[in-house]
Specification:
Helices cover 35% and strands 14% of the residues. It is α+β, with helices and mostly antiparallel strands. α2 crosses α3. It starts with a strand and ends in a 5-residue tail after the last strand. The chain has one domain. The longest helix is centred in the N-terminal third of the chain and has 14 residues. The chain is globular, with a radius of gyration of 13 Å.
Length: 102
């Protein structure tokens, strides 16, 4: 969910992930925001192929930067992307992926 403008993930098992994007090193933050800017654009429809959990793994694969799901969700908020349903564990967005066949 969004709490005070930041991401807060409540897992079904009772665990709460409060890790924030701004806890990453500045160079990692810049790389993640750059990746989001270069690869994602706003759209009128929900992207069917990607959730916050899946996209954060793609970033980890491509950039070698580990983030929790909550840190990625917080990064997307920071980049201006609002989830379709903030109460889902893995957020979906109204986005399109630039220049990729996904």
């Amino acid at each position: 969910m969004i709490y005070k403008g930041r991401a807060l993930s409540k897992h079904p098992e009772g665990y709460i992930d409060k890790a924030l994007f701004t806890e990453l090193e500045e160079k990692e933050q810049a790389a993640v925001l750059g990746w989001i800017h270069d690869n994602i654009a706003p759209a009128s429809r929900t992207h069917k192929g990607g959730t916050s959990y899946g996209i954060k793994h793609l970033i980890q694969f491509e950039l070698g930067i580990y983030m929790t799901n909550n840190q990625f969700k917080d990064a997307m908020l920071y980049a201006g992307y609002i989830p379709v349903n903030q109460f889902d564990l893995n957020w979906k967005y109204k986005i399109k992926v630039k220049g990729r066949n996904r």
